[in-house]
Amino acid sequence: MNKDTLGPLAVVIVGVAAFATILAFAEQPVACPCDSSSNPWYPCLNNPCPLMVGFTLDSYHFNTPTNLTLNIRSNGGLTVALIAYYVRDASGAQYANSNWSGPTIPPAASTSINILIDGTAFTFQRGNSYTVSIVTSRNYEYSFTITE
Fold first, then answer.
1. Helix or strand run (H / E) with residue 25
2. Residue 127: what are its φ and ψ, rounded to 5°?
3. Which of 35, 58, 73, 147 is the most exposed place for a label (fewest CB within 10 A)?
4. How many C-beta neighbours within 10 Å does residue 104 have?
5. Surface-to-core class of residue 5, CB atoms within 10 Å of its CB (0-12 exposed, 13-18 middle, 19+ buried)
């Protein structure tokens, strides 16, 4: 190859590489879809995925045939308010409290929740299983199965 063509060829190669790099990083997405892997050529600037909220049932105690206390622990990264609960027995009868002002639980906190049912559809009976579902202000529902 001629020495006179190496200089201009190098300039062209460097120019093309610089243009490709600018083009690649100029089109960075503002956010990536939840649960997607980020392309290293197009890194995410903001992650739209919410910090998940979850609960662990630490313990429970039946106080009366219509009163139950749940001790739950938040294992998510967000503060969340509890807004409704549903209790269902094994035969499918259900008590709903869809207008409940439950506690607001910070991340990694433990709290006691008093669950009251009216006793019309059923009452808590020894030896029976129940499913308690709790709804959060973020529209997540968590269910626990417990036995009297």
1. helix 3-26
2. 90, -10
3. 35
4. 13
5. exposed
Cα(128)–Cα(133) distance, integer angstroms: 17
Distance of CA 147 to the CA centre of its chain: 27
Q: Assess whether 67 and 104 both reside in one domain.
A: yes
Cβ neighbours of residue 125 closer than 8 Å, sequence gap 6 or more: 65, 148
CA distances from 65 to 42, 44, 114, 132, 142 (A): 58, 53, 13, 15, 23
Enter the pTM of the model: 0.65
Q: What's the pLDDT tens digit per position in 88-130? A: 999 999 999 999 999 999 988 999 999 999 999 999 999 999 9
Chain CA centroid to CA 46, Å: 17
**CA–CA gap between residue 5 and residue 15 (Å, rounded):** 15
User: Domain containing 19: what range?
Assistant: 1-49
